[in-house]
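Why this split exists: single-chain examples teach little about how molecules sit against one another. For that reason, every record in the complexes split bundles all components of an assembly together and asks for one structure covering all of them. Below is a record exactly as it appears in the raw files.
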Amino acid sequence: MATAAKATRIDTASGAGSSAAPELCWFEEVCKEDVALVGGKCSSLGELINAGVRVPPGFALTTHGYARFMREAGVSGKIPGMLDGVGHDDLDRLETASREIRDLIELHPFAWDLEDSIAEYYRKLSVRCMVPAVPVAVRSSATAEDLPGASFAGQQDTYLWIRGVDDLLHHARRCISSLFTARAIAYRNRMGFPHEDVALSVGFQKMANSYTAGVMFTLHPANGDRSVIAIDSNFGFGESVVSGEVTPDHFVVNKITLDILERTICNKEITYTVDLKTQKSVKVETPFERQTVQSLIDDEIIELARMGKAIEKHYGRQMDIEWAVDKDLPAGGNIFILQARPETVWSEKREKAAAVAGKASSAMDYILSSLLTGKKVT
Amino acid sequence: MGGRLPPLEKGGWGGFRRRSHSAGPSFLRIQSSESNQVIVRNWMQHNPTLVDGDTLLSEAKRILTEHNLQALPVVDGGRLRGMVTRQHCLRAAHFVSRTQSADEYSFFANRLKVKDIMVRNPATLSATDTMEECLRRGQELGIGQFPVMDDGKVVGVISSKEIFSLAAHFLGAWERRSGITLGPMTLKPGTIGRIADLVEGAGAEVQAIYPIARSENGGDGNPHERKVIIRFHAGEVRKVVAVLEAAGFRVIESVEAHQPEHH
């Protein structure tokens, strides 16, 4: 009898999401090998946290949680039927099908116990951050995103400054439904990628209340020069820089000496920030007198470059990093890394060069080309 | 296993009563005068105040303060969804006041809902659980309040208030008994009877004898040994102590009740 009771208890435990197939997990519980579980974005955040990089805390709805939601929403079964005979260039029908699928997803409530798990993680995050109903960024973390040859990047949505369980759940569903924009459907149709096979994870990350934010490359994006770090920045959330809506301030830092080699201050007309009255992320015009002010001070530039170097060293390759400077925290502890992914443009060119190097005729050629591509000769 | 009583343990709350000692081992029978069964239903707060998940936290906080409650079960559509405690409200309020921000105050007062703060899937008790079970789970989980369920519905709440009255009831806190605690000893059949005889022989009227186990991480010494707490009326405590010590028991504390003139 005692064993029977124990067995039922174990059953209910696995039903609620045990270690075998967790529906939710903290960022720090995953690393960069967990792309299949939590997608590229969340797994790299976990990797960064575990490498000791300052990253705002958060948690992820895993692909198991996503799959369960899709199963229960009855979407998985219906999609092939809804997309039957829709060509990838038939824009009107694509839009209609996309709208139908997205409504199906967005209007379907999470199962009670899944909702409870998400809400419980959110509550714990709020307690950790010492803010009731802490504002979070809700972002999709696709398993196919950022992978070579299948660039889904930018096709999924990000929602900033989401507060409260209701909004959180709503935007989680919107993230999931963003897998089925007309553009994404057309793309998968064209590439012959089955819609049932896409999996998504949703990340919920504490919102950095950023004064300044932007991106950083651990090489020069214009010429691939690996001896420098390039930083783009604008006031407010990093979205304005990432989306290319403003021409950001541009800094180039020497990777060895950490000298600021180049400094281009641009006219930055817009800022993404939060309207604290409505608790919503808004796009506003930057006050005229601030538009041409340097958005990142020199100390922060150097600190960022130092962090960039550490991340590059950890991954052993050039990185594309999103960062933010939090306005609520004191200097010295206010720079956060929001995302880091391997830089693709120049790295791929180098891999090609390395391939050529492999066939080099002489040992000297090999060593030289290896030096050029930054490979350590042993 | 749910409704059945756990076996009577000497180390638990099973206060032995002199008269019924030989009447049988059932804990329930010992206490079964009138409705005083020691199950949760008889000790809980009935008809508890409930809120739903969309209630503003500021409203929940007002209810907790005005009714001097420790926790509010959160029920949506007849189903228990969570529990919001006074501590959760105070913590949230503390976080907000730290920010010194008018916008945070406004969010707290006008936007923050119970569902944003409440604990989901709270530990519950069944109305037919024993109070021993309640105490054991409260201690195990480190929590001080439970919604009480009957047939899937919230029918009551157990909080520190109820635990206080339970403890007071068992220790006869309002009876102003005198008390003696004997040092750890191994209880054999007859030991408790002998203690009772000695105390009554010294002219006192035994009210209760509680053998108390060492606490779980109870340090060194024999884990089977029990301290024995004796509660009695009248008599001279000094005399009772002398009799017990003469019989070889070690008295580690004694309290003389302040007898009211008329009781």
